Amino acid sequence: MIHRLIDKIRQTQAPIVVGLDPMLKFIPSHLQKIAFERCGRNLEGAAEAVWLYNKGIIDAVYDLIPAVKPQIAMYEQFGIPGLTVFHKTVEYCKQKGLVVIGDIKRGDIGSTSEAYSVGHLGKVRIGDQDFYGFDEDFVTVNPYLGSDGVKPFLKVCQEEKKGIFVLVKTSNPSSGEFQDRLVDGRPLYEIVGEKVAQWGEECMEESYSYVGAVVGATYPEQGKILRKIMPKSFILVPGYGAQGGKGSDLVHFFNEDGLGAIVNSSRGIIAAYQQEKYARFGEEGYAEASRAAVLDMKEDIAQALSARLG
Amino acid sequence: MIHRLIDKIRQTQAPIVVGLDPMLKFIPSHLQKIAFERCGRNLEGAAEAVWLYNKGIIDAVYDLIPAVKPQIAMYEQFGIPGLTVFHKTVEYCKQKGLVVIGDIKRGDIGSTSEAYSVGHLGKVRIGDQDFYGFDEDFVTVNPYLGSDGVKPFLKVCQEEKKGIFVLVKTSNPSSGEFQDRLVDGRPLYEIVGEKVAQWGEECMEESYSYVGAVVGATYPEQGKILRKIMPKSFILVPGYGAQGGKGSDLVHFFNEDGLGAIVNSSRGIIAAYQQEKYARFGEEGYAEASRAAVLDMKEDIAQALSARLG
């Protein structure tokens, strides 16, 4: 799957992932109206509004980008109807040819991590048949429980040719509270990064491993170091745009081959129409505003990368 | 809610939580047969089997225990039908008067943690009404992202009078890989434990805070130290039974008042009938075997605690 992600990045010339992190306050009122009329002003109605909103955005941008990253929490908040739309969104994106990174940040002890990996990447055996639960292509994984929490994901990835991104240095302001604590004089995130590189050694598809890492755009200096520690790992970079990361911050997350990183933007794309810059599209044109924002993001990153090479 | 948990512990004389972590291999064949005939040999059928199995156990043990801890991964592996049964199990346990600890180990950056806490402990606003998603009483939280990943949970706990248990030192063999790394000469789990105590200071209900911690029964020495670092926090102790923790290992997790810890057993209770010791109940008597195992566990812990006081 990492190979497929690389192919798609090359084909679209866009190391970009659109974060499908819907919140009701982003969803245009005409879509909320349709959804509430159809399903009621309740969890089902909210989930339907999310679905209509997502579909509009996906249809408008799918040809420009290699991948999407639905954040499951934004669906889980609407209970079962929300998670049903998460699943529907995953399926629809895959039909559109997109690589789907489930941003689930799961992680538990061995047998429980096995259940998560089966449910999100693999299949569960019932009688003599196998069934897929959510069937994303990649998921994000929390490493706090150590190797035996991560390895069940690797096993399923090997079987299914899928991949994971392990949280190493997250984009939020207090990520340093534990991740930056010095262990033998070096921050914990470097130790986690070394483990990612090590787990990846046996999980190679040509020149990259399918054990990637999450490193926030808001920490470019740390990104530079982690890039060296994990040369064969793709870095999923959140925090661009709304969280403050800029194109010029991103260059160090990439390798010399121009690959090795994929930059996420969520509300900067999906709620672009609420920004002054894209206000001309209006609420009704929210999906076209998202398309314009993707094109601008692509340009911003391409410029930063070419300035580095130039 | 921590106050209610304490009342229930006193009333049942059992600082015990039963982990509802169903796996198909635990579910007696007569229940699988009914479920598959009813719903098909598919995700729906597997989820129905889980439901029938859970209901039998809950009905057999609810009067003996204060709380249950459904592990969401075991439901999530069956996709939407599985999560629907997770929700149904939460609701049923609450009807039976049990305190429900959702073992979800979520944790993310601020706005995303907010969505998880709303979905699992609080309510989401849709139009001018509020709706509950999963509505557990407590959830487990992963601290790797730091304070701004945890604080949204605290805010919802304050509003809803609920609580959390933060992962501090987990029960699995490789928990030490990151959690034991020395920071200024002290293991990381102590630093996390200090944070738990600090978060708890503003979250008190009488003598205990509703910010608890998870510390594995498999690490009694660490439990002793963490007990001192977090004197006002309840400790949720997994790893008893199947994972190797014994009654005598547990005493240090408790305070002098005989409170402060709640010990989880999952497969040791719910799959008791598969053990030699309870084989007399047979597959059909799986729920009665679970009841016998709860009574034995209660006795084991009571003996260990009275030996310590004596």
Please write out the topology.
2 copies of one chain form a homodimer.
Chain A (H helix, E strand, L loop, with lengths): L1 H11 L3 E5 L8 H11 L3 H19 L5 E4 L2 H4 L2 H17 L3 E8 L3 H11 L2 E4 L2 E4 L5 E4 L5 H14 L2 E7 L6 H4 L2 E2 L2 E2 H14 L2 E2 L2 E8 L4 H10 L3 E5 L9 H4 L10 E5 L1 H4 L15 H24 L1
Parallel strand pairs in A: 1-2, 1-13, 2-3, 3-6, 6-7, 7-11, 11-12, 12-13
Antiparallel strand pairs in A: 4-5, 8-9, 10-11
Keywords:
homodimer; 310 residues; alpha/beta; TIM Barrel; 8-stranded parallel barrel; 13 helices; 13 strands; 19% strand; globular
How would you portray this structure in words?
- With 310 residues, chain A is α/β, with parallel strands linked by helices.
- The first copy, chain A, has a single domain (2-309), classed as TIM Barrel, CATH 3.20.20.70.
- Chain A contains 13 helices and 13 strands.
- Chain A has helices at residues 2-12, 29-39, 43-61, 73-76, 79-95, 110-120, 147-160, 176-179, 188-201, 220-229, 247-250, 267-270, 286-309; strands at 16-20, 67-70, 99-106, 123-126, 129-132, 138-141, 163-169, 182-183, 186-187, 204-205, 208-215, 233-237, 261-265.
- In chain A, the strands form three sheets. Chain A has an eight-stranded parallel barrel, surrounded by seven helices. In chain A, strands 4-5 form a two-stranded antiparallel ribbon.
- The model of chain A has no long low-confidence stretch (mean pLDDT 95).
- At the A-B interface, helix 3, helix 4, helix 5, helix 6 and strand 4 of A face helix 3, helix 4, helix 5, helix 6 and strand 4 of B.
